[in-house]
Amino acid sequence: MTADMTTAKRSERWSGYGLLTVMAIAVVLPFLSVFLASVQPAGTPVVGLTWPEEWSWGNYEQAWSVAAFSDLIRHSLIIAVGVVPATLVLAALAGYALGTMRLPGGNAVAAFFIAGLTIPVELIVVPLYFDLRGLGLTNSFLGVILVEIALFMPFSVFWMRTHFQSTPQSLVEAARIDGASPATILLRILLPLARPSLTTLGLLVFMWSWKQFLLVLVLIQDTTRHTAPAGLGFFVGQNTTDIPTLAAGTIIVMLPILILFVIFQRSFIAGLLQGAMKG
Amino acid sequence: MKSTRRLRRRLARAACALALVLPLTACDALTPGSTAAVTGPRSVPSSTAVPEGDVTLRVQFADAPLMVDALIAAFEKGHPGISVEPQYKTFSDYVQNLKLTMTSDSAPDIAQYAVGMTDLAQDGHILDLAPYREAYGWDESIPPVSLDQLTAGLRSEATGGRALFGVPAGLSMTGIYYNKELAEKAGIDGPPRTLAEFEDQLAAAKDADLTPLGVGGLDTGGLHLWAALLNQTMPMDDYWDWVNGTKDATIENRAGITASRLVVEWGRKGYYNESANGTAQLDSTAQFAKGDSVFLINGNWAAGQLATTMGDNVGFFPMPGEQAGDPTVASGFSVAYAVSSRTEHPEAAGAFLDFLTSPEAGQIISDNGFLPPNPEAVAKPEGVLADVAEGHRRAVGDDGITTFPDFAAPAMLDRLRSGVQKLIADRVEPADYLDSLQDEWEEHHAE
Amino acid sequence: MPSRPPVRPPGARGRGPWRGYVYVLPAFLVYVAFAVLPALHTAYLSLFEWDGVTLGEWVGLGNYQEILQDSVLRRSVFNALVLVVFFSFVPIVLGLAMTGLLARYRRPGMGAYRFLFMLPQVIPLVAVGVTWRWLYGDDGLVNQAFGAVGLDGVTRAWLGDFDAALIAVGLVGTWVLSGLCMMLFLSGVQKVDPSLYEAARIDGAGPVREFVSVTLPHLRGELAVAMTVTTVAALASFDIVYVTTNGGPGEQTTVPGLLVYRLAFSEGKVGLAAALAVVLGCLILAIVYLVNRLSRTET
Q1: Rounded distance between C-alpha atoms, residue A244 and residue A222, angstroms
Q2: C97 Cβ neighbours under 8 A, 6+ residues apart
Q3: CA of A111 vs chain B CAs: smallest distance (Å)
Q4: What chain B residue is nearest to A103 in terms of C-alpha separation?
Q5: Which residues of B touch C263 (CB under 8 A)?
Q6: Whose CB has fewer CB within 10 Å in chain A, the N or C terminal residue?
Q7: Is C132 a residue whose pLDDT tops 90?
Q8: Amino acid C18: pLDDT
Q9: Spatial distance between the Cα atoms of B314 and B387, rounded to a whole number of angstroms
Q10: What is the structure's pLDDT at C157?
Q11: Quick one: which H or E segment has residue B167?
Q12: Where does it primarily localize (chain C) (predicted)?
């Protein structure tokens, strides 16, 4: 290798990192701007990116207790805690059957699930409101939970089906010859192996549930039962002038999902990328 | 594989059959909605007794949170068994969700009267308060005229007289605030007597290198400006006909064109704050308080806040008429409260509404820049609050309080907001703008 | 019963092949009841003129006709398509460009970058919208940045500007989705056999030719996915628009999702809202179908 080529390579390498860093800064700046605004003294006018002269964490207290973000977070958690386990169980069961058994018309059923990947909330929200109101399920967490489970079901079934399809058929066969029932095979053999897939799916479903806005906006009219994004959406209209508190509220809404993202970043990123690929 | 293909074909056939059958069956049973009335009570009981025991009332509203908080605090002091939980929404959120909210099972016990309440009253979602009007003797504590605005055009089934769907807690009104210091700097010596004089003042402010007029066009500021001008150019009866949906009423006339042209012209001359269309009303008020503009278009609901932050430096006047002797006409509405048919505590709600008519409540209402239903019962306000009260007095005296234009149809608020934004940015011909309003009007009032 | 030992399906063990459906049933029921039926119900409601309360009136395809005629409704569909450029086209081009630059050599330290680039994906769009609403404001970071480089003349409230608002909203989408596209492509490239690059390099291929002849063909699947995901995000962009501009100024940023919400729940035009929702759904379906069709025929 000539000296010339090495320098070319090195400059290319550094310019690559340079570009990546520029993009990374573009991603981080908005977050930084909001964060710095959230630690400015309450009620002060804030301009763009300003380093606070004194760090005041009081805005978080203000947003948490006075603006009731604690309630919003709690409601979002209640919904997520309802949605995630139910989705995992239902998807694992359906994915197991569609992925390992030869069901008559199984492919058509799988395709029917997959078709739901393209359903936007906008398409179903109008009749949902009227139907669920008839059932007394508006303004209730249960109503939102059921609809979210249904919305996330296409992806979840697809994800688990793909997973079970990729587990070695010989394992299942061996267990079957030993006389294990289908339920035993699922519980004892396949599910323990599916832990990573289930974890990733659980994280994705939690995230989608946390992000859901339009559905909650329509199904939950009682502002005291709003979830984090819906509450933030209302809060912004009322408090545009108090940037520090608004910024603190925004950070509070982001925080739970951010913490999960930091802890499980490997699963998360793999899930987002593979999930997109498989879907 | 073959079997799935067969199944798919079968599914497709079934879907086609379904698609064919649906329209045929779409006659009665499957038609959405119903003609059935809402079950349950349609009016309040006729006694003023409030049952013992702890009760929580939820109040949803869109105007003057500080005033409502103060009213609630005063009410709770006198009624230890009843606690009131305020739920504040911004005006556009409130109006956008009002029908959903009031028809849902968790409707608040008490809600601010706004566009759409008429429909809700007709469908029985809010209670007829006429029995309370007699039982509590509201006709004595408030001028009956202000109650008669709130009948939704119905007669009371309970009393046989006029129905009542809200109790007013103060009258609102839009107008112009001015920063006295900045006005002086621009050589402006007092409130204008005519519209032309106001235009001269705007020009003077512009010449002094100041921002003449602050407008919060992102949400409702623009429409207040347009309506304030329209109030001066359009005969009041024509305007009322249009807002009330009287047959053959129209906004496509000379007055509408003149008002809309003024909005465009002022924009061309650079009278508005540069980012008017990107500024929310709350923000434009905060900017005005900081001294960013000489004038501000807003309503009396901002008076309390401005009095606190600006002290003696702020004044208020209603938009002046074309001639010096013209009556004072301004958009305004009773900030009234209605009671949901779904409430479990109509008696406690009645006690709260009755409190709103008391002198104590009137004082709180007046302190927050609203005209109390019974102005004689309160102490004389000072500073900008006195200006507002004076404006109110003149407008009421001239019978010149007109309803906001968005009351003309449920979708009108969106048309007005986006339409005035276009006027401000000089993106639409006044005639086309009025045409879009009239289209919406005709669609709604087609029957 | 088709019995084909030795791979006999476990669920079919002597109890009829349908028995396995017991496992599918719960998921199926929830999915049908709360997603499929509501979607069909939307299509059904779209054939009525209904205010949400009183008895509706059958109008056939009248609501669809109105969508074609009403300038606001048409405008919303047009705006959604403009957003596709910013949510889909720009991130994909940006992602491809970055991939072309980065794909030739393995780089250590990508983990930290990957974390940052995926960050906008996990944040609720409402929070993203609130953040950008402030960044675009009079006192926001965007104006501060322009001011810092001496361009005070262009500063404005971007979301209130007739010419800039839609682009500003679109760029929020670019911000959210560029990282995802890039990471998708970069992870796709890792599956390419490094020897192909070696071979290309020995042939004297520069970065551009290398990208076109080696990298791009291997990314067909990823491209299809990126297009699908970003387009759906662009067409269903209710959250961001609702909190940033609420459709204004004028109708510059009004999108179908916003109108579905407004028409159905505050303007009492439920049938029209349903029709618009159906149009939106069909648009998404058509694009997904088209993208998948194209990516498949080319392989």
Answers
A1: 26
A2: none
A3: 10
A4: B4
A5: 411
A6: N
A7: yes
A8: 81
A9: 10
A10: 81
A11: strand B167-171
A12: membrane
Please judge whether A234 and B60 are an interchain contact, meaning their C-beta atoms are less than 8 angstroms apart: no
**Of C2, C33, C116, Cβ closest to residue A28:** C116
Angle at which helices B65-78 and B303-310 cross, to 10°: 100
Taking residues B61-73, report their average pLDDT: 88
- Lookup result for tokens 């309802």: A82
Q: Which chains touch C (3 or more CB pairs under 8 A)?
A: A, B
User: Binning pLDDT at 50, 70 and 90, where does residue C4 land?
Assistant: very low
Angle between the B236-244 and B221-233 helix axes, to the nearest 10 degrees? 130
Per mean pLDDT, which of B344-353, C144-153, C242-251 is the most reliable?
B344-353
CA angle, A231 then A236 then A240, to 5°:
155
Task: Give the separation between CA C58 and CA B26, rounded to whole angstroms.
Answer: 8
Pairing of β B110-112 and β B55-61: parallel
Across the interface, whether the CB atoms of A108 and B8 are under 8 A apart is answered: yes
pTM: 0.85
Per-residue pLDDT reduced to its tens digit, C34-85: 999 999 999 999 999 987 777 788 999 999 999 999 888 999 999 999 999 9
Chain B interface, best mutation among A238, A239, A243, by max B CB count within 10 A: A238
Helices (H) and strands (E) in chain A, counts: 14, 0
Q: Cα–Cα distance between C175 and B288 in angstroms, integer?
A: 33
Is the distance from CB of B85 to CB of B58 less than 8 angstroms?
yes
Record: contact A130-B104, CB cut-off 8 A: no
Tokens describing residue B2: 């073959």
The pLDDT of residue B20 is above 50: no
Which tokens go with B408? 């003309």
User: Once rounded to an integer, what is the mean pLDDT over residues B170-196?
Assistant: 93
pLDDT given for residue B25 in this prediction: 40
Pick from C28, C48, C47: nearest CA to C36: C28
C-alpha span between A279 and C228 (Å, rounded) = 10
Per-residue pLDDT at C31: 96
For B93, nearest residue in chain A (alpha carbons): A234
Q: How far is A210 from chain C (nearest CA, A)?
A: 7
Please tell me the distance from the alpha carbon of residue B345 to that of residue A140, in angstroms, as a whole number: 22
Of A93, A169, A265, the CB nearest to C115: A265
Instruction: Indicate if the pLDDT at residue A9 is higher than 90.
Output: no
Q: 3-state DSSP call for residue A248?
A: helix
Q: Which of C44, C130, C288 sits opposite A232 (nearest CB)?
A: C130
Is the confidence at residue B198, as pLDDT, over 70? yes
Query: What pLDDT digit, counting tens, does each position of C207-237 carry?
Result: 788 888 888 888 888 898 899 889 989 998 8
Question: In the B/C pair of chains, how many CB contacts fall below 8 A?
Answer: 118
DSSP labels for B382-400? -HHHHHHHHHHHHHHHTT-
Any B CB within 8 A of C69 CB: no
* Rounded-to-integer distance, Cα B10 and Cα B14, Å: 6
CB B167 within 8 A of CB B358: no
CB contact under 8 A, C249 and B418: yes
Residue of C30, C115, C127 with shortest CB distance to A253: C127
A129 touches chain B (CB under 8 A): yes
Give me the pLDDT at residue B296, please. 97
Which pLDDT tens digit goes with each residue over B278-318? Answer: 888 888 998 899 999 999 999 988 888 898 889 999 999 99
User: What is the pLDDT averaged over residues B383-400?
Assistant: 89
Residue B447 CA to residue C164 CA, distance in Å, equals: 41
Say whether residue B33 is in contact with chain C using an 8 A CB cutoff: yes
Chains touching chain B through at least 3 C-beta pairs below 8 angstroms are A, C
Entry field: residues in chain A: 279
